[in-house]
Structure formats: C-alpha cells, structure tokens
Amino acid sequence: MTTTLDAPLRSQDFVISPFENLGAEITGLDLSLPLNEADFARVKQAHLDHHLVVFRNQRITPQQQIDFSRRFGPLQIHVLKQFLLANHPEILIVSNIVENGQPIGLGDAGKYWHSDLSYKALPSLGSMLYAQELPEEGGDTLFADMHKAWETLPVALKKAVEGKRAVHSYTATYSKPKFGAQWRPQLTEQQLAEVQAVSHPVVRTHPENGRKALFVSEGFTTHIEGLPEDESRDILQALYDHSIRPEHLYRHRWQYGDMVFWDNRSLIHLATGCPDHLRRKLYRTTIEGDAPF
Ligand code: SIN
C-alpha cells in the first residue's frame, strides 16, 4: 500500500519570464518544498538557457538552500572559514555588517568582476545567493554574459587568445586597497595551500550547452601564459572592457524573497556596493563544476 510519505511530489505551477539581455524570473515556485523531477528539470533548463534565474518570494531555511543547491552538484566550502554560517559551512555569509567589532561576513565579496572560485582546479558550476537583509539604497549585483562577449569579440582578439591559457589566483586582487583590511584577514599557510594558482583556457566550452565563453576576469586572472607581461596585460584589459559592454549585462536590483542562481561557466559578476552604514546580508552556496576545457 502506498503511504502519503511515498506519494509522488506534486508539480508546482510556476512561470519563467526571460529578461532582456540575460536571465529570467521564476514566479510561483516554492523552494521550501522538494521539487519533483519534472519541475527540477524545468528549472535546470531555464538556468542553462538564461544563465541566471531569479526565484522570487522565497522563504527558505539555510538547510533548504543547501539541499536545493546540492541537487546541482557537490558544494564548495569557501577558504575564509570565519565567514561561514555557524553549523552550515556550505553557506558563505556575504555581508557588510560588523557586530561587536567583528565582521559577520565577507563584506567586500565581488568588488572586482569575477567568476566564483575560478582560482580552483574545479571552478564553480553556479552560485545561489539568497537575500537576508537589504539596504534601502544600492547593493545591486551586475552580471555579464561571457558567451556573448566571446561571440562578439573582434577577430584579431579572438585570434590572439584562442588556444591560450590564463592563470587564476585567489590572491590576484586579495590585498588591493579597494578591499577594507577587516574583510581580508591575512591568509594562513593552510589557506594559501588551499588556493594555489591554476591555469584554465581563456576560451572555455560550456560542458552542457556546448557554447564557447571567455573565461577570464579582473578579479582572479593574473596573466595569459606564454605572452610577454605587457602584451598579456593589454589583451586582458581589452577582454575585460569588451566583456562588460552594456548589451552583455543584467543588473539585479534585490528584493526581499529573492534567491538568484547564476551559471559561473557563462557569466562574470560584480557587487556594486552600498553606503557603509546600510546593512546588507546574503547567504551564498557555491556548486562545484568540472575542469574547464
Ligand atoms: C559575490 O560575488 O558572490 C557576491 C555578490 C554580491 O554581493 O552582490
């Protein structure tokens, strides 16, 4: 006899509405309920098609965010352990809030354009960022489509980088003055060992949609292998400038209840910041991807 516990999960009646350049909004889906296979497949496809989905009006616990994220792959634990949520190390607290003189989270995450954890041998497939506290002003996140960046790149630049590899390092911008010292504690030997520089193709192929994308960012890329330093710097700067042309961008203006899930294989992102005195707190889970090729 089938008990209620064994009963198949009901489909939810949700709507996927694409944005203009990239991304889509998903309304009518409750992520506090486990998704059945058909609903999960629709969400996964929307994520692949639009590179970013915004789940509106969510009320989920940290464990529900973790469980949902895990359906896409294993989760990665951030190297700055002091900013992980207590009892939920899979969640990185992204926040500018200081309590008792101590920052409760990584306050300056994403001040440079980057793809999460591109400094790992297995960079992130995607990240989910769930709003907890939002400022009345500012605090938007910008996303840039690296498939479009590649496809519209001038031929000379395409030729200059095709087949090349670039080095990514967590420490590329770690101590830059843009970051406040309180958010960037000195890394221990063990932490440095966890984030040794790696090299990845400058142009990667998305393992699921087969499209090529630029895979460099000002946040973590140090240089292109095999090129003189000045040539590498000039080419990277040209790639960065091209990547963030307005027609490649989506600006996310956060609302309470939002959880944004983006594809780090297709996009780079930037936290635009908010005035220091306004509180901002979000919870991030980061899903492991495969080795870029
Ligand atoms: C991040 O880079 O993961 C954080 C983005 C943000 O705070 O808007």
What is the helix tally?
A: 6
Main β-sheet, spatial strand arrangement: 1-2-3-16-8-18-5-4
Strand portion:
25-35%
Tell me roughly what share of residues is in helical segments.
10-25%
Q: Any idea what the shape is?
A: globular
pLDDT below 50 for ≥5 consecutive residues: which ranges? none
Heteromolecules bound: succinic acid
Major sheet summary line: 8 strands, mixed
Radius of gyration of CA atoms, rounded to a whole number: 19 Å
Q: What gap, in angstroms, lies between the N and C termini?
A: 49 Å
> What is the H/E string?
EEHEHEEEEEEHHEHEEEEHEEEE
Estimated structural class? alpha+beta
> Mean of residue pLDDT?
93
Strands, count: 18
Explain what this protein looks like in three dimensions.
It is a single chain. The chain has 293 residues and is an alpha+beta fold. It contains six helices and 18 strands. Succinic acid binds at residues 94, 109-110, 116, 127, 141, 269, 271, 282, 284.
List the helices and strands and how they pair.
Elements: E1 15-18, E2 24-27, H1 37-50, E3 52-55, H2 62-70, E4 84-85, E5 88-95, E6 98-99, E7 102-103, E8 124-133, E9 141-145, H3 146-151, H4 155-161, E10 165-168, H5 189-194, E11 198-201, E12 203-205, E13 212-214, E14 221-224, H6 229-243, E15 249-252, E16 259-263, E17 267-271, E18 281-288
Parallel strand pairs: 2-3
Antiparallel strand pairs: 1-2, 3-16, 4-5, 5-18, 6-7, 8-16, 8-18, 9-15, 9-17, 10-11, 10-14, 12-13
The structure holds succinic acid (SIN).
